[in-house]
Amino acid sequence: QVQLVESGGGLVQTGGSLRLSCAASGFTFNSYSMGWFRQAPGKEREFVAAISWSGARIYYVDSVKGRCTISRDNAKNTVYLQMNSLKPEDTAVYYCARTSSPISFSSNSRNYNYWGQGTLVTVSS
């Protein structure tokens, strides 16, 4: 079965960095785009970044452009989110997700059908 397991969250001060990892299993990883989403307390889940199966296509939400880098290692079945210059408003549970179709590349959560359990990122001011 498909499994996505995030790690790397934690408590960091404003301006700090974290690298989130998402280990995938149960499917042909290099056939699917992957995405990172986040959900802050009291807010809806929002898109953060997406990467195509080959890594050739990447897309970020405007609020993280220049501060975050999504990448993947298809040999390790892992997708990463490097986050720099963190701000208190980045505090959220971060989820990785897999698109429902191998040809999909999307920022819309409706196009993702498998989700990890999430990892909490807390940025203190």
How would you characterize the overall build of this protein?
By secondary structure, the protein is mainly beta. It is globular. Strands 2, 4, 5, 6, 9, 10 and 11 form a seven-stranded mixed β-sheet that branches.
Low-confidence stretches: none
Number of helices: 0
Into which percentage range does the β-strand content fall?
over 45%
Largest sheet: 7 strands, mixed
Average residue pLDDT: 97
Total DSSP E strands: 11
Order of helices and strands: EEEEEEEEEEE
What is the overall silhouette? Answer: globular
Structural class: mainly beta
Helix content: under 10%
Spatial extent as radius of gyration:
13 Å
Q: How far apart are the termini?
A: 40 Å
